[in-house]
C-alpha cells in the first residue's frame, strides 16, 4: 500500500510564503516524476509544478518565478516553496507521484489527499 502524505498548507496573507511537503511511503521500488497540482472551487485540477527523477522541472506560467519545486530521492519527498503568494493561489494542493514496484512493468500514478492553501488579500 502506497501513501502520499502532504503537509504545510495553511492561511497566509498576500505576499507571504508557504512550503508544502509530500512524503511517499510503502513498498516502493522507485519514483519517477513527482508533482504538485491544485484545484480551486469550481475549477479543474491543474498542474502547478513537476520534477523528474533527474531533477528537470516544469512550472505553470502563473507560478514561474514565485514557486520552486524540489525533491529528496533518498526520503521519497517532494517539496514546493511558494513565495509572493497571491489570492488566486488559493486552492487545495495535491501531491502526485509516478511509482514503480519490484517485478511490475511500468509506473502507477498516486495522489495525496490534498492540503488547503488560502491566501487572504
Write up what this structure looks like.
The protein is elongated and about 50 Å long. The model has no long low-confidence stretch (mean pLDDT 96). A hairpin with a 4-residue loop joins strand 7 (67-72) and strand 8. Strands 2, 4, 5, 6, 9, 10 and 11 form a 7-stranded mixed beta sheet that branches. A 4-stranded antiparallel beta sheet has the order 1-3-8-7, with no helix packed on it. It has strands at residues 3-7, 10-13, 18-25, 30-39, 46-51, 57-59, 67-72, 77-82, 91-100, 108-111, 115-120. It is built from no helices and 11 strands. Helices cover 0% and strands 56% of the residues. The protein has 121 residues and is an all-beta fold.
Structural topology:
Blueprint: E1 3-7, E2 10-13, E3 18-25, E4 30-39, E5 46-51, E6 57-59, E7 67-72, E8 77-82, E9 91-100, E10 108-111, E11 115-120
Parallel strand pairs: 2-11
Antiparallel strand pairs: 1-3, 3-8, 4-5, 4-9, 5-6, 7-8, 9-10, 9-11
Total strand count, please?
A: 11
Q: Into which percent range does the helicity of residues fall?
A: under 10%
User: Roughly how many Å apart are the termini?
Assistant: 40 Å
Please give the largest β-sheet: 7 strands, mixed
Report mean pLDDT, rounded to a whole number: 96
Q: In one word, what is the shape?
A: elongated
Helix-strand pattern: EEEEEEEEEEE
Give the helix/strand class.
mainly beta
Name the poorly predicted regions.
none
Number of helices: 0
Rounded radius of gyration (Å): 14 Å
Share of β-strand residues: over 45%
Quick tags:
elongated; four-stranded antiparallel sheet; 121 residues; single chain; seven-stranded mixed sheet; mainly beta
Amino acid at each position: 500500500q502506497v501513501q502520499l502524505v502532504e503537509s504545510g498548507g495553511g492561511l497566509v496573507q498576500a505576499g507571504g510564503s508557504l512550503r508544502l511537503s509530500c512524503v511517499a511511503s510503502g513498498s516502493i521500488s522507485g519514483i519517477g516524476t513527482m508533482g504538485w497540482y491544485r484545484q480551486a472551487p469550481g475549477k479543474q485540477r491543474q498542474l502547478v509544478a513537476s520534477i523528474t527523477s533527474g531533477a528537470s522541472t516544469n512550472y505553470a506560467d502563473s507560478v514561474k518565478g514565485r514557486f520552486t519545486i524540489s525533491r529528496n530521492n533518498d526520503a521519497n519527498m517532494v517539496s514546493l516553496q511558494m513565495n509572493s503568494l497571491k489570492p488566486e493561489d488559493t486552492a487545495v494542493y495535491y501531491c502526485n507521484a509516478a511509482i514503480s514496484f519490484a517485478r511490475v512493468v511500468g509506473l502507477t500514478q498516486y495522489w495525496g489527499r490534498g492540503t488547503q492553501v488560502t491566501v487572504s488579500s
